[in-house]
Amino acid sequence: MDPGTGKGSPSEEGETSLNATRVDWLREAERIGRRLDLLGAISEGEGALNRPPFTRSLCRAMEETARWMEEAGLRPAVDAFGNLRGWGVRENQEPVLLIGSHLDTVPGGGRFDGALGILLGISAAEILQDRAGSLPFALDILAFQEEEGARFRSGCLGSRAFLGLLEEKDWNLEDSSGISLREAHDSFSIQGWPRMEPDPREKLLGYCEAHIEQGPQLEALGVPLGVALGIVAQERLLLSFLGEGGHAGCVPMSARRDALCAAAAFVAFVEEASRREPGAVATVGELHCLPGAVNVIPKRVDLSVDLRHPEEAALDRLSQALLERAEEIGRDRGIEVGWRRTQRLPPVRSDPDWQDRLSSVITTIQGKAPRLWSGAGHDAGVFGRLVPMVLLFVRCRGGVSHDPAELVSPSDTARALEALVGFVEGFLP
Ligand code: HGY
Ligand code: MN
Ligand code: MN
Predict the structure, then answer these.
(1) Is residue 1 part of a domain?
(2) Residue 428, C-beta contacts closer than 8 angstroms, at least 6 positions apart
(3) From the CB of residue 191, how many other CB atoms can be counted at a distance below 10 Å?
(4) Do 324 and 185 fall into the same domain?
(5) Domain range for 184
(6) If you take atom 6 of ligand 1, which residue's CA is the nearest one?
(7) Model confidence over 284-317: pLDDT tens digits?
(8) pLDDT at 128 over 80
């Protein structure tokens, strides 16, 4: 894997809008938009955007991102996990402020989720270099290999690896074709890339992530930017229902142990129970029915459950209720029910001081700074347990995300860039 080193092609880059003091935020936002379009076309196969971790498309997205990092005066290098880091200028052991997000996408995802935060960080680093010259801290930009958890059903693997938090059980997670995280990682060649591991003595000032809100609140409030109070607790479960196959035409209904009918009763309960728990959201996003033929009674169903709630006790209550109901359905229908937890992340609050810093910058830009809980998980949630963290929310049209219709306007991108630069400049003496 060999990061591109040439300058961007004229069509994608255009001239930059930076000069020593004044920034044309909108023109810089349009450059970011062109880069998002380019990344948004880098996908596995045809059709809607799909860029899982440890794939050829993720590698190509890294190469483009590394090139833009270099143009911004950063030194791109990968770590042992395969995360890409644009290392800022360093004089000696100064503390490090990190800005980042993720390069992977969900299947059928949008081009702003993750990539927008990385590209805003790269442009902010270039502007700050240009305006402030040397900073009293290093400013590094991170592009994580994996955040969504769509392939291995456990998210933020890249940022957890970055912080040394991955456990053996994580490496054994498997994707839907039975490839483990370890196998996917080991077969993802990072030959040819500059390798740099963080200095264990490096002091992290904290982590800031700019990310689309992925919900409708900012649009309803009529403002482009907001600040996350924190990120809700989330849990992911995989359940299996094992019944008895058979001929669709010959097995009487009274004699069946239909795995899909059992799973359907469970899925209906997931919706019913989560509607009863205020503040909860629950999603059965994956369901695989085997053997999956029109004239065969389903023998096995594997399904996923994504549960979220701002409070951990409520999440526990809901999770317990679902698992008890699954076992009850199994007993009633003679179905063998298995389950395992593939992810559990407690709620995490953004750093109060960093929230205030970011809010005051946003208020100068748009007159107010709404503070919202994030229903979506982010790499910021992993950092927030260890160092000061803040999430800059950017309005997305209709609150739509995890869908090709995901959209952020150039003017909102411009405001987000102005806020991100202003937030970092707030740390200057
Ligand atoms: O699932 C999430 O909340 C995030 O998009 N990974
Ligand atoms: Mn995301
Ligand atoms: Mn996402």
Answers:
(1) no
(2) 132, 135, 136
(3) 7
(4) no
(5) 10-232+347-425
(6) 148
(7) 999 999 999 999 999 999 999 999 999 999 999 9
(8) yes
